[in-house]
User: What shape does this take?
Amino acid sequence: MKIVTKKETFTNPLYLESGRILEPYELVYETYGELNDERSNAVLITHALSGSHHAAGRYEGERKPGWWDGLIGDGKAVDTKKFFVICVNVIGSCYGSTGPMSPMYPSLEPYRFRFPVVTVKDMVKAQRILLDRLGIDRLHAIIGGSMGGMQALRFAVEYPSFARHTIAMAATYATRPWVIAFNKVVQEAIVKDPRFQNGNYDPKDFAEEGFTGLAVGRMAGHISYLSPESMDRKFGRAYVETDGLFELFGKFQVERYLEYNGYGFSKWFDPLSYLYITKAINIFDLSRGHDSLEEALKRIRTDLHLIGFQRDLLFMPEEMRHIADVMGAQGQGELVRYYEVESDYGHDAFLVELEKFSDYIADVIGK
Assistant: This one.
Protein backbone atom coordinates (compact mmCIF):
# COMPACT_ATOMS: atom_id res chain seq x y z
CA MET A 1 0.00 0.00 0.00
CA LYS A 2 1.40 3.36 -1.04
CA ILE A 3 1.44 5.96 1.77
CA VAL A 4 1.97 9.64 0.98
CA THR A 5 2.02 12.36 3.67
CA LYS A 6 1.77 16.01 2.63
CA LYS A 7 1.12 19.49 4.00
CA GLU A 8 -0.84 22.17 2.16
CA THR A 9 -0.68 25.89 2.98
CA PHE A 10 -3.67 28.15 2.30
CA THR A 11 -3.23 31.91 2.16
CA ASN A 12 -6.88 32.75 1.53
CA PRO A 13 -8.75 33.35 4.81
CA LEU A 14 -10.83 30.58 6.34
CA TYR A 15 -14.01 32.25 7.59
CA LEU A 16 -15.02 30.45 10.77
CA GLU A 17 -18.47 29.81 12.17
CA SER A 18 -17.68 32.15 15.08
CA GLY A 19 -17.15 35.08 12.69
CA ARG A 20 -13.39 35.03 13.16
CA ILE A 21 -10.82 34.37 10.45
CA LEU A 22 -7.91 31.94 10.26
CA GLU A 23 -5.24 33.22 7.88
CA PRO A 24 -3.00 31.62 6.72
CA TYR A 25 -3.53 28.00 7.74
CA GLU A 26 -2.06 24.60 7.00
CA LEU A 27 -3.51 21.12 6.71
CA VAL A 28 -1.54 17.88 6.96
CA TYR A 29 -3.05 14.91 5.19
CA GLU A 30 -2.18 11.37 4.21
CA THR A 31 -3.26 9.34 1.20
CA TYR A 32 -3.28 5.63 0.43
CA GLY A 33 -3.67 4.05 -2.99
CA GLU A 34 -4.02 5.83 -6.32
CA LEU A 35 -6.59 8.30 -7.66
CA ASN A 36 -8.11 6.97 -10.88
CA ASP A 37 -8.26 8.94 -14.12
CA GLU A 38 -11.90 9.87 -13.56
CA ARG A 39 -11.13 11.03 -9.98
CA SER A 40 -14.16 9.03 -8.87
CA ASN A 41 -12.63 6.61 -6.35
CA ALA A 42 -11.73 8.99 -3.49
CA VAL A 43 -12.76 8.01 0.04
CA LEU A 44 -12.37 10.51 2.89
CA ILE A 45 -11.66 9.18 6.40
CA THR A 46 -12.46 11.63 9.21
CA HIS A 47 -10.71 11.15 12.55
CA ALA A 48 -11.79 11.34 16.19
CA LEU A 49 -10.59 13.58 19.03
CA SER A 50 -7.12 12.12 19.53
CA GLY A 51 -6.73 10.74 16.02
CA SER A 52 -4.58 12.11 13.23
CA HIS A 53 -4.06 11.97 9.50
CA HIS A 54 -2.12 8.69 9.98
CA ALA A 55 -5.07 6.34 9.67
CA ALA A 56 -3.41 3.27 8.16
CA GLY A 57 -0.13 1.62 7.30
CA ARG A 58 3.11 1.73 9.19
CA TYR A 59 5.90 4.28 8.92
CA GLU A 60 9.45 2.97 8.69
CA GLY A 61 10.62 2.14 12.19
CA GLU A 62 7.14 2.64 13.64
CA ARG A 63 5.94 0.06 16.17
CA LYS A 64 2.21 0.76 15.80
CA PRO A 65 0.30 1.23 12.55
CA GLY A 66 -2.27 3.94 11.82
CA TRP A 67 -5.32 4.11 14.09
CA TRP A 68 -7.73 2.38 11.63
CA ASP A 69 -5.21 0.06 9.98
CA GLY A 70 -7.48 -2.94 10.44
CA LEU A 71 -10.08 -1.31 8.21
CA ILE A 72 -7.96 0.43 5.55
CA GLY A 73 -5.44 -1.22 3.25
CA ASP A 74 -4.92 -3.56 0.33
CA GLY A 75 -7.71 -6.14 0.36
CA LYS A 76 -9.34 -4.72 3.51
CA ALA A 77 -12.85 -3.27 3.87
CA VAL A 78 -11.68 0.09 2.53
CA ASP A 79 -9.57 -1.48 -0.18
CA THR A 80 -6.65 0.72 -1.22
CA LYS A 81 -6.20 -1.35 -4.38
CA LYS A 82 -9.58 0.02 -5.42
CA PHE A 83 -9.94 3.35 -3.59
CA PHE A 84 -7.84 6.47 -3.15
CA VAL A 85 -8.13 7.07 0.59
CA ILE A 86 -7.52 10.48 2.20
CA CYS A 87 -7.32 11.36 5.89
CA VAL A 88 -6.85 14.99 6.94
CA ASN A 89 -5.63 16.21 10.32
CA VAL A 90 -8.28 18.68 11.51
CA ILE A 91 -7.55 22.31 12.29
CA GLY A 92 -7.02 22.75 16.01
CA SER A 93 -5.15 19.47 16.35
CA CYS A 94 -1.47 19.01 17.19
CA TYR A 95 -0.26 16.75 14.40
CA GLY A 96 0.82 19.45 11.95
CA SER A 97 -2.35 21.21 10.89
CA THR A 98 -2.81 24.74 12.21
CA GLY A 99 -3.69 24.72 15.90
CA PRO A 100 -3.19 26.69 19.11
CA MET A 101 0.56 26.01 19.23
CA SER A 102 1.11 27.03 15.60
CA PRO A 103 2.88 30.35 14.92
CA MET A 104 0.50 33.29 14.70
CA TYR A 105 1.43 34.93 11.39
CA PRO A 106 3.40 37.16 10.89
CA SER A 107 4.88 36.44 14.32
CA LEU A 108 6.69 33.22 15.16
CA GLU A 109 5.01 33.17 18.56
CA PRO A 110 2.31 30.50 18.97
CA TYR A 111 -1.37 31.43 19.10
CA ARG A 112 -2.01 29.74 22.45
CA PHE A 113 -5.29 31.26 23.77
CA ARG A 114 -5.41 33.69 20.85
CA PHE A 115 -6.36 30.79 18.61
CA PRO A 116 -10.04 31.07 17.68
CA VAL A 117 -12.59 28.50 18.79
CA VAL A 118 -13.15 26.16 15.86
CA THR A 119 -16.17 23.96 15.24
CA VAL A 120 -16.75 20.67 13.48
CA LYS A 121 -18.29 22.72 10.68
CA ASP A 122 -15.02 24.68 10.37
CA MET A 123 -13.02 21.44 10.27
CA VAL A 124 -15.22 20.16 7.46
CA LYS A 125 -15.05 23.44 5.53
CA ALA A 126 -11.24 23.36 5.60
CA GLN A 127 -11.20 19.78 4.32
CA ARG A 128 -13.62 20.68 1.53
CA ILE A 129 -11.24 23.46 0.43
CA LEU A 130 -8.33 21.01 0.46
CA LEU A 131 -10.25 18.52 -1.69
CA ASP A 132 -11.01 21.32 -4.17
CA ARG A 133 -7.29 22.01 -4.40
CA LEU A 134 -6.65 18.32 -5.06
CA GLY A 135 -9.14 18.44 -7.93
CA ILE A 136 -11.66 16.16 -6.22
CA ASP A 137 -15.16 17.54 -6.77
CA ARG A 138 -17.01 14.45 -5.54
CA LEU A 139 -16.19 11.68 -3.09
CA HIS A 140 -17.13 8.07 -3.44
CA ALA A 141 -17.54 7.90 0.34
CA ILE A 142 -16.92 9.61 3.67
CA ILE A 143 -16.36 7.40 6.73
CA GLY A 144 -15.79 8.46 10.33
CA GLY A 145 -16.41 7.50 13.94
CA SER A 146 -17.00 9.58 17.09
CA MET A 147 -15.87 13.15 16.24
CA GLY A 148 -15.12 11.71 12.81
CA GLY A 149 -18.78 10.68 12.62
CA MET A 150 -19.77 14.24 13.49
CA GLN A 151 -17.66 15.46 10.57
CA ALA A 152 -19.26 12.92 8.24
CA LEU A 153 -22.74 14.10 9.27
CA ARG A 154 -21.78 17.74 8.88
CA PHE A 155 -20.46 17.01 5.38
CA ALA A 156 -23.80 15.38 4.53
CA VAL A 157 -25.76 18.45 5.66
CA GLU A 158 -23.50 21.25 4.39
CA TYR A 159 -22.45 19.62 1.10
CA PRO A 160 -25.48 17.44 0.31
CA SER A 161 -24.34 15.77 -2.92
CA PHE A 162 -20.59 15.83 -2.35
CA ALA A 163 -20.29 12.16 -1.34
CA ARG A 164 -22.07 9.22 -2.89
CA HIS A 165 -21.99 7.29 0.40
CA THR A 166 -21.64 8.62 3.95
CA ILE A 167 -20.98 6.34 6.92
CA ALA A 168 -21.14 7.91 10.39
CA MET A 169 -20.63 5.72 13.43
CA ALA A 170 -20.59 6.16 17.22
CA ALA A 171 -21.63 9.81 16.91
CA THR A 172 -24.65 12.01 17.61
CA TYR A 173 -26.79 14.80 16.15
CA ALA A 174 -25.94 17.08 19.13
CA THR A 175 -23.60 16.55 22.06
CA ARG A 176 -25.53 15.77 25.23
CA PRO A 177 -24.80 16.88 28.82
CA TRP A 178 -23.31 13.49 29.75
CA VAL A 179 -20.42 14.00 27.30
CA ILE A 180 -20.00 17.67 28.14
CA ALA A 181 -19.69 16.70 31.81
CA PHE A 182 -16.87 14.24 31.11
CA ASN A 183 -15.10 16.86 28.99
CA LYS A 184 -15.46 19.37 31.82
CA VAL A 185 -13.46 17.08 34.10
CA VAL A 186 -10.65 16.99 31.55
CA GLN A 187 -10.72 20.75 31.00
CA GLU A 188 -10.61 21.53 34.72
CA ALA A 189 -7.77 19.07 35.29
CA ILE A 190 -5.74 20.75 32.53
CA VAL A 191 -6.24 24.42 33.37
CA LYS A 192 -5.89 23.97 37.15
CA ASP A 193 -2.56 22.16 36.87
CA PRO A 194 0.17 24.67 37.88
CA ARG A 195 2.38 23.45 35.03
CA PHE A 196 -0.22 24.66 32.53
CA GLN A 197 0.85 28.25 33.34
CA ASN A 198 -2.30 29.75 31.81
CA GLY A 199 -1.37 28.21 28.48
CA ASN A 200 2.20 29.53 28.50
CA TYR A 201 3.89 26.15 28.96
CA ASP A 202 6.75 24.76 26.90
CA PRO A 203 5.58 21.49 25.27
CA LYS A 204 9.05 20.05 25.79
CA ASP A 205 8.37 20.11 29.54
CA PHE A 206 5.95 17.19 29.18
CA ALA A 207 7.94 14.96 26.83
CA GLU A 208 9.44 12.74 29.53
CA GLU A 209 7.04 12.73 32.47
CA GLY A 210 3.81 13.77 30.79
CA PHE A 211 1.39 16.44 31.97
CA THR A 212 -0.54 15.47 35.09
CA GLY A 213 -3.62 17.58 34.33
CA LEU A 214 -4.15 16.05 30.91
CA ALA A 215 -3.27 12.57 32.18
CA VAL A 216 -5.89 12.71 34.94
CA GLY A 217 -8.48 14.07 32.53
CA ARG A 218 -7.67 11.38 30.00
CA MET A 219 -8.23 8.73 32.67
CA ALA A 220 -11.76 10.06 33.12
CA GLY A 221 -12.18 9.97 29.36
CA HIS A 222 -11.08 6.33 29.16
CA ILE A 223 -13.78 5.38 31.64
CA SER A 224 -16.38 6.80 29.25
CA TYR A 225 -14.81 5.03 26.24
CA LEU A 226 -15.29 1.59 27.79
CA SER A 227 -18.25 -0.07 29.50
CA PRO A 228 -18.64 -1.86 32.84
CA GLU A 229 -18.87 -5.20 30.99
CA SER A 230 -15.69 -4.63 29.00
CA MET A 231 -13.81 -3.57 32.15
CA ASP A 232 -15.00 -6.72 33.95
CA ARG A 233 -13.79 -8.84 31.05
CA LYS A 234 -10.51 -7.00 30.55
CA PHE A 235 -9.43 -6.56 34.17
CA GLY A 236 -11.82 -8.24 36.60
CA ARG A 237 -10.56 -7.66 40.13
CA ALA A 238 -6.99 -8.56 39.26
CA TYR A 239 -4.37 -6.83 41.36
CA VAL A 240 -0.88 -5.78 40.26
CA GLU A 241 1.30 -8.75 41.18
CA THR A 242 4.09 -6.70 42.75
CA ASP A 243 1.75 -4.55 44.90
CA GLY A 244 0.41 -5.47 48.31
CA LEU A 245 -3.34 -5.47 48.82
CA PHE A 246 -2.98 -3.45 52.01
CA GLU A 247 -0.53 -0.92 50.58
CA LEU A 248 -2.37 2.39 50.33
CA PHE A 249 -1.18 3.01 46.79
CA GLY A 250 -1.22 -0.60 45.67
CA LYS A 251 -3.13 -0.89 42.40
CA PHE A 252 -5.76 -2.97 40.73
CA GLN A 253 -4.93 -3.74 37.10
CA VAL A 254 -7.62 -1.31 35.94
CA GLU A 255 -5.90 1.48 37.88
CA ARG A 256 -2.55 0.69 36.30
CA TYR A 257 -4.19 0.64 32.87
CA LEU A 258 -5.66 4.12 33.41
CA GLU A 259 -2.33 5.50 34.65
CA TYR A 260 -0.39 3.97 31.77
CA ASN A 261 -2.74 5.31 29.11
CA GLY A 262 -3.30 8.68 30.77
CA TYR A 263 0.34 9.57 31.31
CA GLY A 264 1.43 8.05 28.01
CA PHE A 265 -1.11 10.13 26.12
CA SER A 266 -0.09 13.32 27.93
CA LYS A 267 3.50 13.00 26.69
CA TRP A 268 2.55 13.52 23.07
CA PHE A 269 -0.87 15.22 22.86
CA ASP A 270 -0.93 18.99 23.35
CA PRO A 271 -3.09 20.26 26.27
CA LEU A 272 -4.35 23.34 24.41
CA SER A 273 -5.35 21.24 21.41
CA TYR A 274 -7.29 18.99 23.78
CA LEU A 275 -9.15 22.01 25.16
CA TYR A 276 -10.01 23.34 21.71
CA ILE A 277 -11.11 20.01 20.27
CA THR A 278 -13.28 19.10 23.25
CA LYS A 279 -14.87 22.55 22.92
CA ALA A 280 -15.69 21.74 19.28
CA ILE A 281 -17.24 18.44 20.38
CA ASN A 282 -19.23 20.09 23.18
CA ILE A 283 -20.84 22.69 20.93
CA PHE A 284 -21.54 20.29 18.07
CA ASP A 285 -25.18 20.56 17.03
CA LEU A 286 -26.19 19.48 13.54
CA SER A 287 -29.15 21.87 13.61
CA ARG A 288 -27.07 25.01 14.23
CA GLY A 289 -27.39 27.28 11.22
CA HIS A 290 -30.77 25.77 10.39
CA ASP A 291 -34.25 26.22 11.83
CA SER A 292 -34.31 22.73 13.35
CA LEU A 293 -32.73 19.31 13.14
CA GLU A 294 -35.50 18.32 10.73
CA GLU A 295 -34.64 21.22 8.42
CA ALA A 296 -30.93 20.37 8.54
CA LEU A 297 -31.54 16.71 7.71
CA LYS A 298 -33.82 17.64 4.80
CA ARG A 299 -30.71 18.88 2.98
CA ILE A 300 -29.13 15.42 2.86
CA ARG A 301 -28.83 13.79 -0.58
CA THR A 302 -26.11 11.24 0.12
CA ASP A 303 -26.67 7.54 0.79
CA LEU A 304 -26.41 7.80 4.59
CA HIS A 305 -25.49 4.87 6.84
CA LEU A 306 -25.60 5.33 10.61
CA ILE A 307 -23.83 2.78 12.84
CA GLY A 308 -24.56 2.66 16.56
CA PHE A 309 -22.91 0.43 19.17
CA GLN A 310 -24.75 -1.21 22.03
CA ARG A 311 -23.29 -0.19 25.41
CA ASP A 312 -21.67 2.92 23.96
CA LEU A 313 -22.04 5.17 26.99
CA LEU A 314 -20.60 8.26 25.32
CA PHE A 315 -22.71 8.56 22.17
CA MET A 316 -25.56 6.18 22.76
CA PRO A 317 -27.01 4.16 19.87
CA GLU A 318 -30.43 5.80 20.23
CA GLU A 319 -28.82 9.11 19.25
CA MET A 320 -27.85 7.69 15.86
CA ARG A 321 -31.20 5.93 15.55
CA HIS A 322 -32.96 9.25 16.15
CA ILE A 323 -31.43 10.68 12.97
CA ALA A 324 -32.78 7.77 10.96
CA ASP A 325 -36.20 8.09 12.60
CA VAL A 326 -36.43 11.81 11.81
CA MET A 327 -35.40 11.27 8.20
CA GLY A 328 -37.84 8.41 7.82
CA ALA A 329 -40.70 10.46 9.26
CA GLN A 330 -40.15 13.23 6.73
CA GLY A 331 -39.99 11.00 3.66
CA GLN A 332 -36.23 10.41 3.39
CA GLY A 333 -36.33 6.75 4.33
CA GLU A 334 -34.78 5.69 1.02
CA LEU A 335 -31.63 7.69 1.82
CA VAL A 336 -30.88 6.40 5.31
CA ARG A 337 -30.14 3.09 6.97
CA TYR A 338 -29.45 2.46 10.65
CA TYR A 339 -27.24 -0.49 11.64
CA GLU A 340 -26.67 -1.43 15.28
CA VAL A 341 -23.62 -3.43 16.28
CA GLU A 342 -24.01 -5.93 19.11
CA SER A 343 -21.24 -5.00 21.49
CA ASP A 344 -20.54 -4.56 25.17
CA TYR A 345 -17.12 -3.02 24.58
CA GLY A 346 -18.20 0.61 24.82
CA HIS A 347 -17.54 3.69 22.72
CA ASP A 348 -14.13 2.51 21.54
CA ALA A 349 -15.74 -0.48 19.78
CA PHE A 350 -15.54 1.50 16.53
CA LEU A 351 -11.73 1.35 16.87
CA VAL A 352 -11.45 -2.15 18.30
CA GLU A 353 -14.20 -4.49 17.13
CA LEU A 354 -13.71 -3.92 13.42
CA GLU A 355 -14.74 -7.44 12.51
CA LYS A 356 -18.31 -6.58 13.58
CA PHE A 357 -18.85 -3.91 10.93
CA SER A 358 -16.05 -4.11 8.34
CA ASP A 359 -18.09 -6.34 6.03
CA TYR A 360 -20.96 -3.89 6.28
CA ILE A 361 -18.70 -1.01 5.24
CA ALA A 362 -17.18 -3.04 2.41
CA ASP A 363 -20.65 -3.84 1.13
CA VAL A 364 -21.79 -0.18 1.26
CA ILE A 365 -18.82 1.40 -0.50
CA GLY A 366 -18.38 -1.49 -2.89
CA LYS A 367 -21.71 -0.66 -4.57
Remarks:
- The chain has eleven helices and twelve strands.
- The first helix runs from residue 120 to 133.
